[in-house]
Amino acid sequence: MELTAGAMEAISEFYSELRANSEHLTLPITVRTLETIIRISTAAAKARMSEEGVEQVGNWAVLALSLS
Question: Is the pLDDT of residue 20 over 80?
Fold first, then answer.
């Protein structure tokens, strides 16, 4: 399972924004957070029975993490 360029871009932008605004958060934003976003995206793509992670799935993962 590979993420598409669009999914990787969405995840990368979200992670960068989280890191930039991390001083306002109580929990630190680490590489483990990025790995979690990627795992969520991959799992969602598998649930959709997609061969590769599409940008929509990357956006879904970003939304799911931002709501938690």
Answer: yes
DSSP H or E segment with residue 66: helix 55-67
What is the distance of C-alpha 23 from the center of its chain?
20
Number of domains in the chain: 1
Is 6 in contact with 58 (CB distance < 8 Å)? yes
Q: What confidence tens digit (pLDDT) does each residue in 55-66 have?
A: 666 666 667 766
Q: DSSP assignment, residue 9?
A: H
Q: Which domain holds residue 19?
A: 2-67
Buried b (16+ CB within 10 A) or exposed e, 33-54: bbeebbebbbebbeeeeeeebb
